[in-house]
Amino acid sequence: PFDVLVVGGGPAGAAAAIYAARKGIRTGIAAERFGGQVLDTMAIENFISVSHTEGPKLAAALEQHVRDYEVDIMNLQRASKLVPAGADGLIEVQLENGASLKSRSVVLSTGARWRQMGVPGEAEYRNKGVAYCPHCDGPLFKGKRVAVIGGGNSGVEAAIDLAGIVSHVTLIEFDGQLRADEVLQRKLRSLPNVEVIVSALSTEVLGDGQKVTGLVYTDRVGGDSHRIELEGIFVQIGLLPNTEWLKGTVELSPRGEIIIDDRGQTSVPGVFAAGDATTVPYKQIVIAMGAGSTAALSAFDHLIRSSAP
Ligand code: FAD
């Protein structure tokens, strides 16, 4: 069995594996796709101490750093079930391929995925004007016109944030009214360069083959179709944690995030968690790495306090 088994190979999982392996304990990492969301990212300019890098480059560096240590890397493996420790003190992680892994402690770092609009042009222009993370990509649209899709807290926060960087923001909400907290809505309405459109269904992302040029939406009341000229579209309709497989075993928040304390401990003894899959307030690479390191150190602390050798 492993001492620490990490499930998920994004920045959180890679950091956890390195911190665990550096303690000289048996460490494994199982990941559906090593690199995680970083693989889908183009420019990264907020990975502190590195002015600019690209997703695939950072993902390769993550894997190389893990390979510097004696870590059992199991790539292209999807976990389907977690079984808490029984009398033998071993936690079991079952894989979709039928295999099962046992470990004295586990770090869950299965990340999250952005909910997509699912309209023509969205996938084609991803990273070419279609963006999901205002903290990451906001500055790329300095002085340009953008839309934010979604009038919940994250959409309205994104619109307020972007209004300070871009020339104009159009916030598009499907419902007849915004769902964000009133204090955020007041702040939003006070901004001169933000327009809010409610009862609007986004139907298409327009582009010139290279980058985004516009957005088409249908007015759900009148039924007519409108077109906005712009350079960027931030989709803020939800971040879905990859935790479906943990339902009923590990305590999850109403949004499906793994509930952790400030040491990364979950509701299951010996099981820790880190990164975008958890209740951590901000979802970023540096934050996921810090959280992965925390979880691995907590797992080590758990091991030296438990009786088995
Ligand atoms: P993830 O990166 O999501 O990794 C999850 C890992 O778990 C993957 O290996 C996945 O395959 C695996 N996994 C999932 N389910 C299972 C399962 N059941 N069994 C086994 N493995 C599983 N952040 C920044 O700081 N700066 C940026 O510029 C930036 N730009 C971004 C651009 C885009 C387009 C996107 C999508 C995100 C961006 N982010 C950025 C956010 C950043 O990528 C995430 O915060 C970070 O990757 C989270 O790391 P993580 O390890 O928690 O999860």
UniProtKB/TrEMBL annotation:
GO terms for molecular function: flavin adenine dinucleotide binding; NAD binding; NADH-dependent peroxiredoxin activity; oxidoreductase activity, acting on a sulfur group of donors, NAD(P) as acceptor. Residues 2-292 form the FAD/NAD(P)-binding domain. Keywords: Disulfide bond, FAD, Flavoprotein, NAD, NADP, Oxidoreductase, Redox-active center. GO terms for biological process: response to reactive oxygen species. One of its GO terms (cellular component) is protein-containing complex. Disulfide bonds join C133-C136. NAD(+) binds at residues 145-159. FAD binds at residues 3-18, 266-276. It comes from the Bacteria. The keyword Calcium does not apply. Serves to protect the cell against DNA damage by alkyl hydroperoxides. It can use either NADH or NADPH as electron donor for direct reduction of redox dyes or of alkyl hydroperoxides when combined with the AhpC protein. Belongs to the class-II pyridine nucleotide-disulfide oxidoreductase family. This is Alkyl hydroperoxide reductase subunit F. It comes from Montanilutibacter psychrotolerans. The gene is ahpF.
